[in-house]
């Protein structure tokens, strides 16, 4: 093992120790048997920590590995698409977080499926809605988690000089440990450390790229390879029209406001947090990280024959960064991927141990300490399941699999979570909306060649119409029965 590999291993174990320590501190901050502390960090997140965990989770492995790969293959259209996430997240924090935070706190909601059930009346029908929301969340976020584990495993393998299986096992093992210890508080605090490293990595990458390339020669090289890299005639992966890339803005807003692993952060903010400050932090951090996909264009000009576009970032680090900086930046990128992986794992485990438990058994488990250990045990089980899914999954493009999971989940949840903010539907409306959104988006992503955004957004429209339509019908029927 050469000196640089030893340096990389040293960096890794140093940060592993820090993450585990933060998980341990978070576990001590929770009261004994405090399930709310595990699920929503005791509603204790301040503006900077809350903003940091939102940005770290939103950009993550997709931003540092998937997006440069998409840019390498499709060109500058992805740089524009990626940029829309920063303002979209800021808008979600400024104009949606407060309502969700206060409403959930009033009802005592500790997860998004529980919030959906409670806002639609609770009772036996609410338990059914909560259970269906939990099952959809588990299935689709396990798909997304699979892509995140592959991303972190691929990068860690090349960085440490080990194979994919060993790398994924090592990274996932540490994520399981600190998430199990401290729940969402551990996830948020480790995300805060991680997003600081991610920001440093973005700055170093931009300094290297713009310090080593002549912009005119860069443009000429890309045009010689494929003129559509800089002047696209289509929306690339997003659809046939160039205009379809602008759909990323509403998609990204709903991504931040509706998806359970993102929206749960809104539930975890302090009651008196200044959300305008959080919005400013989100905008600054998000804008900085939005520059990272330029790596794809840089590598396309320098190494135009990559067999796998998802290797754009690893090839960039290996060939164009000094070894010491390569190791440091790779560590920060691993931070990025782990920041989403830990959020997904926490959300999937919460949906299993909390939402499915309440949907099936109601309040059969009375011991708070036992419930907390059920939550922690679920983190271990679901982490192992996601690792096995990654090891045996067929080849896939990281960004596509991520949008399959998050886009379909977004289509399922838009009515019960977002539209219910402005217009209150019924439990039947919520149930039908989730199922139709799931079916529409999933079918279009898997079997229709319509681009990456058209399927989820079409699913959102169908789900929203069903939410409103079914709710109106069921409310009318209920009113007629009450009048007889």
UniProtKB/TrEMBL annotation:
It is a multi-pass membrane protein. The chain crosses the membrane at residues 6-25, 37-59, 79-97, 128-149, 169-188, 195-213, 245-268, 280-299, 319-337, 370-392, 398-419, 426-446, 452-473. The gene is putP_2. It comes from Modicisalibacter zincidurans. The keyword Methyltransferase does not apply. InterPro entries: Na/Glc_symporter_sf, Na/solute_symporter, Na/solute_symporter_CS, Sodium:Solute_Symporter. Keywords: Cell membrane, Ion transport, Membrane, Sodium, Sodium transport, Symport, Transmembrane, Transmembrane helix, Transport. This is Sodium/proline symporter PutP. It catalyses: L-proline(in) + Na(+)(in) = L-proline(out) + Na(+)(out). Coiled coil: none annotated. PROSITE patterns: NA_SOLUT_SYMP_1, NA_SOLUT_SYMP_3. Pfam families: SSF. The keyword Cell inner membrane does not apply. Belongs to the sodium:solute symporter (SSF) (TC 2.A.21) family. It is found in: Cell membrane.
